[in-house]
Amino acid sequence: MIFITRGDAIGSGYALNRIDRTVAETGEPFCDGSHIVYVSSSLADEGTDLGRLMHDLRCSEPDKMHYNELRERVAYYKKEMEGIEDMSGKFEEIMQRKINEARTEILMEGRQEVARNMVRDGSIPLSKIAEFSGLSINEVESIRNSLQP
Predict the structure, then answer these.
(1) Which of 54, 43, 50, 45 is nearest to 8 (CA)?
(2) Contact at 8 Å (CB) between 42 and 74?
(3) DSSP string, 9-43
(4) In the chain, fewer beta carbons within 10 Å around the N or the C end?
(5) How many CB atoms lie within 10 A of CB 118?
(6) pLDDT for 43-68, tens place per residue?
(7) Pairwise CA distance, residues 130 & 118, whole Å
(8) Spatial contact of 15 and 54, defined as CB atoms under 8 Å apart
(9) CB 70 within 8 A of CB 56
(10) In terms of DSSP bridges, do strands 2-5 and 16-19 run parallel, antiparallel, or are they unpaired?
């Protein structure tokens, strides 16, 4: 697993930090095939391949990038109409998904608030509260239990 960070995430002062897994009690290496690498993009030296890659990942201007593959792809999305439209479409998809998630969360909070008020009233059966609020009977019971001292 590789984490690329803006700053020095673990405070080592190095651009590249490889984390080796060991058995705590024995200090022996734990060879499960997993590896963790932290790369600090702010500490990377542009005189190295890694430093040039970090520069390109931070860079928003294709003409200033070192690696052709990244330069061409970024130029496509920033300068060519088809790429701009493609990126705009992806942005709209993400925004619509976030709006839908927020709407669902707000509706759920509203249903829960209605159910809380109905439970506090005490005169309405839990099955009716579930029916009116659109929550499951288990959710209504959980609300009731959370309101009890």
Answers:
(1) 43
(2) no
(3) TTS-S-SEEEEPPB-TTT--B--SS--EEEEETTT
(4) C
(5) 21
(6) 888 899 999 999 999 898 999 999 99
(7) 10
(8) yes
(9) yes
(10) unpaired
What six digits make up the tokens of 12?
A: 């080592």
Q: What is the C-alpha separation between 115 and 99, in angstroms, rounded?
A: 24
- Cα angle: 43, vertex 35, 46; to 5 degrees: 20
- Closest to 2 in 3D by CA, of 25, 14, 19: 19
Among residues 105, 102, 130, 104, the alpha carbon closest in space to that of 116 is found at: 130
| CB within 8 Å of 101: residues ≥ 6 apart | none
Q: Which helix (H) or strand (E) holds 81?
A: helix 81-121
Assign 4 to helix, strand or coil: strand
Tokens, residue 33: 């095939």
The angle that helices 137-147 and 126-133 make with each other, rounded to 10 degrees, is 120
pTM: 0.56
Question: Quick one: pLDDT at residue 19?
Answer: 92
Q: Residue 106 corresponds to which amino acid?
A: I
Please name the amino acid found at residue 11. Answer: G
